[in-house]
Amino acid sequence: MKCKLIKSFWGLIMKRRLLIFVLLILIASPFNFANALDRYGDEGDALSFHVNYVYRSEGKGELKPINNGDVLKSGDHFKIIFTPDKDCYVYIFQVDSSGQIFKLFPMKSFMGVQVNNFNPVTKGTTYTLPSSEKAFMLDDQVGTERIYFIVSKERNKEIERLDIERKEPIDRQKPNLDKNTQDKKIENAEDKLNKYFKRRGITVVPSGQPVRVQWQEGGDVFSVIGQKLENLCEDCVHILEFIHKDGRSN
Question: In this protein, which residues make up the domain named DUF4384 (predicted)?
Answer without folding.
Answer: 72-154
